[in-house]
Design brief:
The protein is α+β, with helices and mostly antiparallel strands. Helices cover 24% and strands 38% of the residues. The two termini are 16 Å apart.
């Protein structure tokens, strides 16, 4: 089996100006993710549940230039990632169809991981 990186891209929503969700809303948002990741684990396909990513950070460019960012100049941003195992890119894409990010207009980028050996 090969490992695949699933990159969760969310539609840009102007998060900084939104009211933070309540604990109940956060719990309701997390349930589909827990269920989906649990189903991948039950199929022995989950390698690493990954993490959510903050919306701010730093970008390191050539000549050691460090800038604030990344800033969303397109209509989507990376919200998180996970690593799964599957027999093929096609199977990994099929497993991604259940990702909760799809229900809110986001997408899943599926990429094979190439070992560095």
């Amino acid at each position: 089996m090969k490992e695949f990186l699933l990159v969760f891209r969310r539609a840009e929503s102007g998060e900084a100006t939104q009211v933070p969700p309540s604990p109940e809303q956060i719990q309701a948002m997390m349930k589909p993710w827990q269920d989906w990741l649990g189903s991948l684990a039950a199929q022995n396909k989950l390698v690493s549940a990954g993490n959510r990513l903050e919306s701010d950070g730093k970008v390191v460019s050539p000549n050691a230039v460090i800038t604030n960012g990344p800033y969303v100049e397109i209509k989507e941003s990376i919200g998180g990632y996970t690593i799964i195992q599957a027999d093929s890119l096609e199977e990994a894409a099929e497993l991604s169809k259940g990702c909760p990010i799809l229900a809110v207009g986001g997408s899943v980028e599926v990429r094979a991981i190439v070992p560095m050996d």
